[in-house]
Write a structure and sequence with these properties.
Elements: H1 6-24, H2 27-30, H3 41-60, H4 65-78, H5 80-89, H6 95-121
Length: 122
């Protein structure tokens, strides 16, 4: 479906891509799941992938776009601890890898802002 706000289409596509990656290549993502969460890392990796696909579908549908975008913003907040864990775990890696891991942290803010903008334009 065509959106009046092009950011919605791109956000849905981005979430679809990351959701699929969580399901087809979960092992690298399992390693960044905080150990304090109950259950297995694989459960959380798959659950977050399914959540990404769910909010992507909601964003893609005009009737549920606002709700889906709010869910995406919440999801971006919820996965932040995994990004912190990754940055801390990668402290002994070469500088380029450490830079990527630490750069992911502030990048959550524009993702949250993007989702909230889609919600406003929904």
């Amino acid at each position: 479906m065509r959106s009046r706000y092009p950011g919605a289409t791109a956000l849905a596509a981005t979430l679809t891509t990351t959701g699929v990656l969580h399901l087809v290549a979960p092992a690298p993502l399992d390693r960044i799941v905080p150990r304090s969460l109950p259950g297995t890392p694989r459960f959380w990796t798959l659950a977050s992938g399914i959540a990404e696909l769910g909010v992507a579908a909601a964003i893609a549908a005009p009737r549920t776009r606002r709700l889906g975008a709010a869910g995406a913003a919440g999801l971006f907040v919820a996965v932040f601890p995994a990004n912190v864990k990754m940055a801390r775990d990668w402290s002994d890696r070469p500088l380029p890898a450490r830079a990527v891991a630490w750069a992911r942290l502030p990048l959550q803010l524009p993702l949250i802002g993007w989702a909230l903008a889609v919600r406003r334009h929904g």
